[in-house]
Each structure stands twice: as C-alpha cells, then as structure tokens.
Design a protein that fits this description.
Strand order of the largest sheet: 5-4-3-6-7-9-8
Number of domains: 1
Structural class: alpha/beta
CATH class: Alpha Beta
Number of helices: 5
Largest sheet: 7 strands, mixed
Number of strands: 9
Strand content: 25-35%
Order of helices and strands: EEHEHEHEHEHEEE
Radius of gyration: 15 Å
C-alpha cells in the first residue's frame, strides 16, 4: 500500500506504508481536506506529527511550506519507513524523527524548549484517552500561544476536550474526522 503527497514541493511522490497491524495512514482525500484548512497557518510553522506512522501528514506539511516537522513514532519499523519517505521526498533536512512513546517524546521536546504552531495527533481509532494528548501538550508547554492541536479520529467517536482546552472545529471526511482544539485564554 502507498499514499501520495497531494501538493507542494513533493507533490505526487508515493510514500511507502509499513505493514504493521493497526497502522492506518491518513488517506489522500482526508489529508487534502485537512491541508486546505491548514494552508494559511503553514508558512514557516513548526509542526508536530505524533503517532506518525509513515509520516504522510508531516511530509504533506513540509511539502506545503512548514518550516520544520518533528515526527514521533514508537515503532522501529514505521520510523525506518518514515525516514526513507523523507529521503525520497528530499525533506530530511527539515525533519526530526523521534522513535519513542509519545509521552516520553513530549517530555524530551519540552526539555529542549520546543514549541509548535500545529500539533497533530493520530492515535489509534476509538482510543478513549486521546484527550491526554492535549494534556501532554499543555503540561509540557509545547504549543505556541495561538497554536492549534488536531486529533484524528473515527467520525463516530470524537475525543473529549481536556481541561483548559476548547473544541474549535471538526472536519469530517467519510469515517475520518479531525477535531481542532485551542487552549482557553486565562481568566
């Protein structure tokens, strides 16, 4: 199975997808819809792609003008395929791949003072704890003040907002949905 880069400098490149149980790359149509919404926010953005799999979402962000993408993927096999996909697209220089569980990766990024304009999470569908991704971002101070966090999920099982977060928008593309969250302003 492969997916393609929809637009930008790597447009048309076919990305390899590791054969891992439970890995489900974000489809071409869903990514196109997502990036049509994200387009005004991408220029020079630092982007986090957590639960990255083959890297399709983060590679699309780089291809469309993100300044840098940090990929987080715990599977060794998926991380190797992701690195090969970055090479294939000529985007390795603007990317960092962290092979670790997402919680450990967020802690490491916080220790290095990193912040993201866009943080994208694609955890396993139907995971009832997806809101903990938002908690991890805010606990570690990883989101820029006007940044957005996005959780991909099955349309029928939306994640709840973590305390201190608000749901700003939901995009549905077939069975896939993207929930956009922002941090509530301090009272």
């Amino acid at each position: 199975m492969s997916v393609r880069v929809i637009a930008g400098s790597a447009k048309g490149r076919r990305l390899q997808v590791p054969s891992s149980k439970g890995l489900r790359p974000t489809g071409d149509r869903a990514r196109e819809t997502l990036f049509n919404v994200l387009a005004p926010h991408l220029a020079e953005a630092v982007f986090l792609d957590a639960f990255a799999g083959c890297g399709a979402v983060g590679i699309e962000a780089l291809s469309r003008g993100a300044k840098e993408v940090v990929f987080v993927e715990r599977s060794r096999g998926a991380a190797l395929v992701l690195a090969a996909n970055l090479e294939l697209c000529g985007l390795s220089g603007d990317a960092e791949v962290i092979r670790a569980p997402w919680v450990a990766a967020l802690r490491r990024l916080a220790r290095h003072g990193r912040q993201f304009r866009i943080a994208f999470f694609d955890p396993p569908y139907d995971w009832s704890q997806a809101y903990t991704c938002l908690e991890g971002l805010s606990d570690q101070g990883l989101l820029e003040p006007a940044g957005i966090a996005i959780i991909e999920h099955r349309a029928s099982t939306p994640p709840r907002a973590a305390e201190g977060w608000r749901l700003c928008r939901t995009l549905e593309v077939g069975d896939t949905s993207f929930s956009f969250f922002g941090i509530l302003p301090l009272p």
